Amino acid sequence: MPHGPHIAIIGAGPSGLMAAEILAKAGCRVSVYDQMPSPARKFLIAGRGGLNLTHSEPLETFIPRYREAADWLAPAIRALPPDALRAWCEGLGQETFIGSSGRIFPKSMKAAPLLRAWLKRLDSLGVVAEWRHRWLGWEGSALLFTHTATDEPVRIHADATLLALGGASWPRLGSDGGWVEMLQAHGVAPSPFRPSNCGFIVPWSDHFKTRFAGQPLKNITIMFEGKTYQGEAMITQNGIEGGVIYALSASLRDLIDAHGQAVIHMDLRPSVNIQTLLRKLQKPRGSKSFSRFLQGVGFSTVAIGLLRELTPTEHFKTDNMSGLAASIKALPLTLTATSGIQKAISSAGGIAREALDADYMLHNSPGVFAAGEMLNWEAPTGGYLLQGCFSTAHAAAHGILRYVAHKL
Ligand SMILES: Cc1cc2nc3c(=O)[nH]c(=O)nc-3n(C[C@H](O)[C@H](O)[C@H](O)COP(=O)(O)OP(=O)(O)OC[C@H]3O[C@@H](n4cnc5c(N)ncnc54)[C@H](O)[C@@H]3O)c2cc1C
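Above: inputs. Below: predicted complex with flavin-adenine dinucleotide.
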């Protein structure tokens, strides 16, 4: 078992656990604290959707996905790039594959087998797991926790600390953003949290939401700010969500913040050009109702419902099929707000790069490092979130090793 310097890692998500592995392998005594009764709950939920670990595109395309934070995170991503993450996953007995979109997944498509193997490895490295420990901040030079089962205070002295407390989406999984107050009291001013990879509010009619909430719009293209995004969206009770919406959610959110709304245009039939579509729409309908006719041309009931919800009624008149074809190819949809951080896949906001040095150590707190989603960067879904967490954790762990080098 290691005898080196004692490192306290607070937060047992993928960021904290990755740092724990690196530090324990380097000979540190590592304790990982988490307020939940078990580790990595958000990571396990991510596994429900297939656990998109990272992406196979070249780094020149990959790194700009981190938007304004790209130059900040680039060194960390180059130091632990997608290939290395993939090799790490395979080293834990979880084969990976590249999906048709270039995304990388474990073959099992789940987080649980990977997490099980990982926790076993951490245990064999001597990492001490301390669950049900809610971090409350500092008391003098000690880290102060409360044991959530007994309410007893717990004070810990460590040679270095890594904060890996996550963002603020899905707070019931543990990352509730409560750490912001602790850091504010400590002279660090994190940027406010905002939803990222989130759904949006659309004021649907009662009729539309009653009939179509929960139904997917498959194979659509969204046009926004001169770019097109292909994928699937889901109608919800109060709006719209899903992969293709998440892909542009940061820009949509910023536009709504600035102007109170954002308008996207949907192509409900991207595989067919407008002339071909018009020819199909102009075919004789016989005795079929218009909805049945449109179903026959290949539209789902939800796509037809959406057209009726958003298109002027005159576009449904037989002599105005060019109007309907135009609506089908560029249906405007007005989004009025994000659907909130509670159910967002991730959050933007958190500790700003200015608060940290190049080793991810807080300028105002020597020996205190931070990594993962609690830092102020955001990225779309596609594996970029976990890659950003793993890479910043890897960078912070190496920063800690430099900090405690004289004690190793
Ligand atoms: C539904 C869903 C699906 C997702 N799918 C994917 C995906 O397929 N691919 C991808 O790249 N990303 C995905 N993500 C995002 C990814 O899971 C997160 O970005 C990642 O888990 C963040 O890791 P982290 O270690 O920084 O923080 P977290 O995983 O949030 O871990 C932080 C930990 O800190 C603990 N903590 C917080 N405050 C305290 C405190 N005061 N005291 C003690 N402990 C505390 C929490 O309990 C938690 O365990 C998904 C997210 C969701 C919600």
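Residues 384-403 form the longest helix (20 residues).
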